[in-house]
Structures are given as C-alpha cells and as structure tokens.
Amino acid sequence: MEKLLKLQQGLKAPKNQRNSFGGYSYRSCEDILEAAKPHLSKLKVVLIVSDKIENVYDRVYVCASAKLFDAEDGKLIADSYGYAREAEERKGMDSSQITGSASSYARKYALNGLLCID
Predict the structure, then answer these.
(1) Are 27 and 17 in contact (CB under 8 A)?
(2) Are 115 and 8 in contact (CB under 8 A)?
(3) H or E stretch including 52?
(4) CB burial class (10 A; 0-12, 13-18, 19+) of residue 78?
(5) pLDDT, tens only, 3-42
(6) Three-class secondary structure assignment of 62-104
(7) If 0-12 CB within 10 Å is exposed, 13-18 middle and 19+ buried, where does residue 13 land?
(8) For residue 5, which of 43, 60, 33 has the smallest C-alpha distance?
(9) 87 half-sphere exposure, CB direction, 13 A CA radius
(10) Which string of b and e fits 47-77 if b means at least 16 CB within 10 Å?
(11) What angle do CA 102, 50, 100 make, to 5 degrees?
(12) Closest among 3, 14, 16, 17 to 114, alpha carbons compared
C-alpha cells in the first residue's frame, strides 16, 4: 500500500479541460493517465484500466475497473470501479460513440476512486 500512497500523494491532475457550453472545467481520463505515467515507472507499479458491459433492468452500463499491481511481484495492490449508464440516444453520436463516451466517463471515475482524486 506504500506505493499507492506515494502515487496518490505525488499525482497532480489539474482540471485543464473546459466545457464552454456548461461553463465548467474538468479533467479527462486521458489527463489522469498522462499525469500518472511518470509515477508508475518510478514506483514500479502497473495500472490496468478496463471495462465491461452490464445490463441492469434493461439499461446498459459500462463498468470500468482500475487496478494497480506491483510490477516486482505481480500482486494486486488496490482496485476501484466506476459505472456509467449509456444514454439511449445522444444527438450527433452513433451507438459506438455512445458506448465510448460512457466508457471514458466510467474509467475516469474508477481512476478517481483508486488515485484519491476529488
């Protein structure tokens, strides 16, 4: 857990993205991963982010997992999960883009939980 603590303390992932329509700043999943990468090799840990599709009461959810492994012994240090519901319809997006959007959102929140990002 010491490696996770060091990763959480050293990680800086500011909200550098701007949603002009909603008028708020945010960080993307890609921003978090980019900020984490230099720390991963230094701490000798591996971060694996993946997702799966789940049906709950006729709604489709993306369940994303973020798992941190010790690169030296391969043991799982910690994991976290994030869920996002697929919109039934989203203007200007086809079905694969809707799933991709839900995946990005779920992955971001799985990473937020694992890395203690508010």
Answers:
(1) yes
(2) yes
(3) strand 45-56
(4) middle
(5) 999 999 999 998 988 988 889 988 999 999 999 999 999 9
(6) EEEEEEEEECCCCCEEEEEEEEEECCCCCCCCCHHHHHHHHHH
(7) middle
(8) 43
(9) 14
(10) bebebeeeeeeeebbbbbbbbbbeeeeeeeb
(11) 25
(12) 3
Give me the residues paired with residue 65 across strands. Answer: 50, 81
Structural tokens at position 69: 């492994």
- pLDDT for 89 equals 65
Lookup: tokens for 12: 């800086």
First to last CA, the chain: 20
Q: Which residues neighbour 31 within 8 Å (Cβ) at sequence distance 6 or greater?
A: 13, 14, 16, 17
Q: Which two tokens stand for residue 60?
A: 């489709």
Write the pLDDT tens digit of every residue in 64-101: 999 999 999 999 999 999 999 877 766 666 677 878 88
